[in-house]
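Colleagues,

For the teaching module next term, I've prepared a clean inverse folding example: a structure given as tokens, and then the sequence designed for it. I'd like students to try predicting residues themselves before seeing the answer, so please don't circulate the second half yet.
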């Protein structure tokens, strides 16, 4: 039985979303900055195609956004949602929808507006985020921070995820300080090191710069930062990267411990949990069983579990249900189909069948469809001329893959 990944791997040079943010190849960025050092890139081209002040007004006024897709804060203190949300009125009585007039009042009083999860609510950002996830191999989320002039949204702090900061409008002065807790995990927030963070923020910053539209900051997790808007309303995007870590690999290995009967054994009867000597024999046996488990663990088994976690954390290109149904009903042999962007699927095949393991389902096709699936992963194909299939079988497989959301019409 053979097994393949979901999509062809990109080379280190072929990473256009990353290059747009950094001006670097993937190889150079990995070597000089990834996870270790900040990078400030001046990009005169700007990012108006991704977001703008008009987009902010559109989302506030017409998209009926609800919490937690939005929050507001003043000087680091998050406001109660009741101060900027309300019911949408008849037929839309849900009470946590953005109220544009309330948002105006709070913003005019100095509150920062945070639009969260824009990779799910604003199409241009969603497309770019999917491209960046493909480039980096790590899940991403996108928030927008809209800050009145001379206001500071949050006190000096660090994030537990890497970020790219894209200045969209206005100007903002950023102060960046070196970490007090390098490479923090998600359950190691800055509040656990509040005093050390405050002390470090009083020292000379590593970066102290005013960001203009088009500027990009890469900030590894753990680096301290704060920002103040200058010269009018500031809008910036924060692309948060939930980097997969070696700790995640270790946790995946430990999850396999439940498969070993030796590691499922109870500790000795009468064990004294406060006495090291009482635990010593069981600990020795546990370490021996754990070493044996690690010795027989295959990279393929760990990769399979990591793939499941990545698929759960990311989302592919949305499908259009009604348009897809119409395409299936009217599918012609010359219609081009393409693999759904950013779709993760683990593919297994043997002499009898090919199986596509998706996030929530598994699709099984006859073995003769394997060349067609492999070809679709590489490039668009005509619905009636998939490799390895006659015209009728090609259309049958094409309709099945359309219905399952694996491919979309180009």
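(Answer key — instructors only)
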């Amino acid at each position: 039985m053979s097994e393949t990944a979901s999509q062809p791997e990109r080379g280190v040079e072929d990473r256009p979303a990353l290059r747009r943010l950094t001006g670097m190849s993937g190889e150079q960025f990995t070597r000089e900055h990834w996870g270790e050092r900040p990078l400030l890139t001046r990009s005169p081209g700007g990012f108006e195609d991704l977001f703008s002040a008009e987009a902010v007004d559109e989302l506030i006024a017409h998209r009926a956004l609800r919490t937690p897709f939005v929050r507001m804060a003043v000087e680091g203190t998050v406001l109660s949602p009741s101060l900027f949300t309300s019911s949408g009125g008849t037929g839309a009585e849900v009470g946590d929808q953005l109220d544009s007039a309330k948002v105006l009042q709070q913003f005019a009083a100095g509150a920062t507006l945070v639009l969260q999860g824009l990779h799910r609510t604003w199409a241009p950002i969603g497309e770019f985020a999917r491209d960046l996830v493909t480039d980096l191999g790590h899940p991403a989320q996108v928030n927008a921070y809209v800050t009145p002039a001379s206001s500071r949204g949050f006190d000096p702090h660090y994030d537990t995820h890497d970020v790219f900061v894209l200045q969209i409008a206005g100007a903002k002065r950023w102060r960046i300080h070196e970490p007090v807790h390098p490479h923090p995990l998600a359950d190691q927030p800055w509040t656990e090191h509040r005093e050390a963070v405050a002390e470090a923020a009083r020292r000379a910053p590593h970066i102290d710069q005013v960001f203009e539209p088009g500027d990009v900051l890469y900030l590894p997790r753990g680096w301290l930062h704060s920002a103040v808007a200058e010269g009018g309303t500031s809008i910036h995007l924060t692309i948060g990267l939930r980097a997969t870590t070696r700790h995640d690999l270790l946790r995946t290995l430990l999850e396999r411990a439940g498969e070993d009967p030796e590691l499922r054994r109870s500790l000795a009867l009468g064990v004294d949990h406060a006495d090291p000597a009482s635990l010593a024999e069981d600990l020795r046996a546990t370490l021996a069983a754990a070493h044996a488990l690690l010795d027989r663990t295959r990279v393929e088994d760990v990769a399979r579990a990591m793939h499941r976690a990545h698929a759960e954390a990311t989302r592919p290109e949305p499908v259009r249900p009604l348009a897809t149904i119409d395409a299936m009903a009217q599918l012609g042999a010359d219609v081009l189909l393409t693999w759904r962007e950013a779709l993760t699927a683990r593919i297994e095949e043997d002499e009898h069948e090919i199986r596509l393991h998706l996030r929530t389902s598994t699709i099984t096709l006859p073995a003769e469809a394997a060349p067609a699936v492999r070809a679709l992963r590489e490039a668009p194909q005509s619905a009636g001329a998939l490799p390895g299939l006659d015209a009728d079988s090609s259309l049958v497989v094409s309709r099945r893959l359309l219905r399952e959301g694996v491919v979309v019409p180009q």
